Predict the 3D structure of the following.
Amino acid sequence: MAKKTKVETRISSEVDLEKNGKQQGVLRLPHSVHRSAYGWIGIPVVCIKNGEGPTVLVMSGNHGDEYEGQVTVIKLIRELKPKDVRGRLILLPMANYPAAKAGMRTSPIDQGNMNRTFPGDPHGTPTKAIAHYIECVLLAMCDYVIDLHSGGSSLMILVSSLFKKSHDDKRTARSIELMRVFGAPVGFIDLKDSSGTMSAAALRQGPIHLSTELGGGGTVTVEALRIAEEGTRRVLKHVGALRPNYPVKPGVETRVVTVGGPDYYVHAFDQGLCEPLVELGDEVKKGQPAALIHFPEAPAREPVTARFGRAGLVLCKRMGGRVEIGDCLFHLATDYKV
């Protein structure tokens, strides 16, 4: 057996990830500040291990204002017992704990966006140190990772599963298989550069990665939560991480689409009030008006029209009426071609 390489990290775990049974604790990250010279940040972690089987990391709170995944992971933690598990589940309900505690996309401590920070830095700011531990310690021991996201406060996205396409055809086929097992109405394959994301971290460390977009808008909806909970259970059972007779419900057929480059996105080139002209799930044409930007400070001024740069399915839209230059208003998806 190859000798394990010790990973340099400032984070220590209260939970023994090699021990059978169900354990709950925190990952301790030393954090010395004015009000607490010898303090630490505690990232909640649960490990459920039962003999041989795959190791799966299930996490939420990568972005702290995305709540659907956090509710899903919390409910899984309460529901699952060691007898239900085959192998090892590592569950992080608040992966970027400072951001999740504050209900913010980014950490209020260092403004770090963890899903743009991988592989992180063991000696860096809290967000970088947490990202490094997740990639270099946790992902390095995993066969699969399920990273639950939604649109957060600023976006609303069709309830979807997703993964980042790699150059490995077998890996891509396996990811599409898991996407169909998850059973969301839409599954999209991200073709964009994903430097710094969990999907890039998984590609570096090896586990098969599946993510989601579960609505958003700073809300938790009944339907999105149902799909998230049932889909996560289905995937865990499919990969052999749950006992063969563990009860799961069937999902729906998944429409597989892709999200590509800049022409899939509509951005604001003026600041003002945004009037959307289409809705999520609409099919649009190239050049079709997407939104009007109105100018309340100059109400007699004619609005500016933002247009779609290509045809496609409206997968995502901005929440909130006030926009600034550079804000994403919509993004599209197109059907996946094998």
